[in-house]
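tool_log.txt
---
The assistant was asked to compare two proteins side by side. It first ran the structure predictor on the initial sequence, then on the second. Raw inputs and outputs are pasted verbatim so the downstream comparison step can read them without reformatting.
(1)
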Amino acid sequence: MDYLLGIDIGTSGTKGLLMDREGKISARAGREYSMDMPQPGWAEQNPEMWWEATIQVIREVKIRG
């Protein structure tokens, strides 16, 4: 059976889902992460955090699906 993997990388976390071609969701996963604010008006994130969260989400939906 064919599946589709959707990934949403946002500022507060990464979410993913696995669904079949008819749209039935087989698995979901998500990881939250923080935002550093070193001074007023600044917001920073380490892109490595996004990458690691994406890998974790993909692994989790793969196991659950």
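(2)
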Amino acid sequence: MSLIAISQRVAIDSKINERRDCLDQAWTKFALACGFTLIPVPNEPDAARSLCSVLPLRGIVLTGGNDLSAYGGDAPERDTTENLLIDIAEDRALPVLGVCRGMQMIQCRFGIRLERVEGHVASHQTISIDGKLAEVNSYHNFGAAETRPPLEAWAFAKDGVIKAVRHTSKRMMGIMWHPERFSEFAPRDISLFRQFFDLIECARSS
């Protein structure tokens, strides 16, 4: 069994003053299609550290939802927890894959300034991935049109907004589309996750 830690969004119920950690059920289905099991991580740094310390993790996924606090988001505990998860990944040489907000977290980690963007909330959007046109979804209001080392861009929207980044020397990558939100998961996304987390090699050896 390949275990992948996954971050959760914070949902706020103001009527009863409750802050909830939430994970779309679609993520579980997508993970099963990719061949791994998800371990949801609570947005509490000490608990997150303890959980990750006792599990044989194969990698970490940073999910979407909640704007970053630096851009008006209301979940600072999530920012702290996800930064900790990146620290843990670097200490243990674990791969990190950020999705939407998760990619923004990676960008901000390396000093990339985000700007408000228009036209990037759509169930279908055509972008360029490694030079080839592809259809994805898009649900974000912030993005960047420039990057710098150690991050490099490998997918772009037609307006120049960066849709995917990767670290040039570490196993760290981000995508701005949501692979879990397609009614039928894209083979491209399943292959991307399996290769990134070395699950193809794992399946061959089992």
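---
observation on (2): The domain at 3-205 is CATH 3.40.50.880 (Rossmann fold). The first strand starts at residue 3 and ends at 6.
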